[in-house]
Amino acid sequence: MERKNNTTQRRRRRLDIDIDVRNRKIAARRTPTVLFLSCGTILLFTVGYTVRLIYYRSSSGFNEQISSGNKQIESSNPQNTSEQILRILAAAKITNINDEYAKKLPTWEDITSMYGDKPVIHGLETCDQYRKMVKPTDRTIGPAGLFNTGTNLMWKMLTNNCNIYGEILWQAPWGKHSLPSNRLKRVAWDGEGVNQTEFFPFTMIKDPFTWMSSQCRHGYGVTFWNSEYDEEHCPHLIRENVRDHDETAPVQLFSGGKFHDTLLDAYNYWYGEWEAERMKKYPHLAIRYEDLLFHGEEVSRIACECVGGNLTADFKFESDSAKGSEGVHEGASGLVKALIQYGNPTTRLSGFTARDLSYARKNNATAKLMKEYAYSDPVL
Length: 380
What we know:
Blueprint: H1 2-28, E1 33-38, E2 41-46, E3 51-58, E4 61-68, E5 71-75, H2 83-91, H3 99-104, H4 108-115, E6 121-122, H5 127-133, E7 140-145, H6 151-161, E8 162-163, E9 167-168, E10 199-205, H7 208-217, E11 222-224, E12 251-253, E13 259-260, H8 263-278, E14 285-288, H9 289-294, H10 296-306, E15 310-311, H11 335-342, H12 354-361, H13 364-372
Parallel strand pairs: 7-9, 7-10, 10-14
Antiparallel strand pairs: 1-2, 3-4, 4-5, 6-14, 8-15, 11-12, 12-13
Helix pairs in contact: 6-10
């Protein structure tokens, strides 16, 4: 109990230090910022930047605006297509974005056309079971999931916003990317001493089409099969230069791991295992990356309360890349880039050839997973 309380205190001290450093950086800016408060009105002006965010709350609702040159996004109705995006930016304390990004921000209709208008979370029926089974001080929680599915973002959202008596780990004790069937069979390098039966995993999943694009940009953990006859395209489901028949381009999960017919089949294999594991009904939640991105506060609250925690009063969204920007994570998306990248239906199929798409659309395992997690079929 003392060890876990000390860990929680260290985590909170680390957050306090981060906040203090951030506040000092803001105070050191040469550009003046003025804040007015009166009669329930909050008005924030940042002078000298291309883009500003004005946020006004009154009894009649919300009126929010991002302006960038001639670009304006404005709403006064909670159902307006842009207000949800502005709420996300406000939660991340983002008040300035450049003109290029402002013009590319998606509409709410774009987002709901791919993911629906509500979060999809599996495993909620196991929350009460976990709270009854494990004492508050013995609870350990953290993310699991395939590469590039938001495991780091989940960890940051929990550490920033969830108060629990137990401990928040950055990965499952069997390894966050490790195959789900390794639970209770494998111990990760930092998982020693963690009771795996008392660990609650938040397993992340991402739309298979955008996941493949992510894996093309940041391919750690996956070895692509390449040939001098292959053209420059990714995700390499079907070899483009083999014309007389469809020849798949195999990939390998993990060094020395199993080879799969294509990158898509590797995805299906990992999540096929996960679906079999979660049918065992041990405590868990399965969470879509897109819901953490577009419904961050709601999903964080559900996840935190599921394990007996309380969401902090001042919700903080991770504005920078939760992965960091060095090594295998170099170039990973920050929040604004992620909103644009994953909120735009037209970029969902970037890099796919017609033959890749034909192969993917005929894949029954993919179709089953997409239906289970309410991902829409891509528009060709």
